[in-house]
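Working notes for the structural subgroup meeting. M.R. asked for a predicted model of this chain before we commit to crystallization trials. I am recording the input and output together here so anyone reviewing the notebook later can reproduce the run.

Input as submitted:
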Amino acid sequence: MMDYKALTSLHAVLTFQSFDKAAHFLNLTQSAVSQNIKRLEQEYGQPLVIRARPVIATPLGEQLLAHFNKVSLLEEGIKENITSQQARHPLKIAVNNDVLATWFTQVVHDFSNTDRNMLHIKAADQNQTRSLLQNGQVVACLSQIGTPVAGGDSVFLGYMHYELVATPHFIAHYLHSDLSTASILQSPSLIYDEHDELWTRYQNECLGASATISNSHWYPSSHGFVELVKGGTVCALVPSVQVKQDVQSKKLISLRPNKRLALPLYWHWYKLNSSVLDRLTTVIRDVTKKTLH
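Returned structure, recorded in token form:
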């Protein structure tokens, strides 16, 4: 039998990435939390966390974290089936920033209308969310990869479309009304951070050009992306759903209206016979039917 008291301490330390915060959350002393984790490490003969700032999990720590998250949902699912009372365990999920900035707020609204569970959302690039599911940090995620993880399932939700937009002022000032590919690539553009591959893909797939980010600002905020574009500072690849009204009102111009990048989105979750996870999945599918094409 696993030491679930110690696993609770491990879960808190890795959730808050701090022994101090974990101790405060569990209403224990830092020494007690540390001793609980040391007891687990002695049992398995390996370190479970790297004691740095922030605290991070070792591969074995990730396995135990994944086990704890799954068991917690399984237990609450059984309790809900027996007592007919909804579970209260927080659902840890991973969602990419563009989705968070657009349609996922509706998911939170709709889910909250029926469930008391809190959603603990980790923001990550769409190429990284599935890894968070694999290493046990979350129990479900959105990803552009369709293959389910071991012990999990996935469903295709639709396509998130991205288009290249700029203000009329930007087109006049930086492009001099020249919308050629060469002119666009020489003008100031925008990427999210070093993990952002969408602008590179768009240049290759939609503009038929060799990709470059030499003229790109880095700005790690989905809302900030659109604000910088609206201010006439850059042209940028943004979700079509996020700028639909601005394009219709001509505040923003789509530089290649017939060239949009389509990013597939899949919802992944562990098959845990969890009613609350099933309800969240239903909400996500209902919302995306209206927002994704």
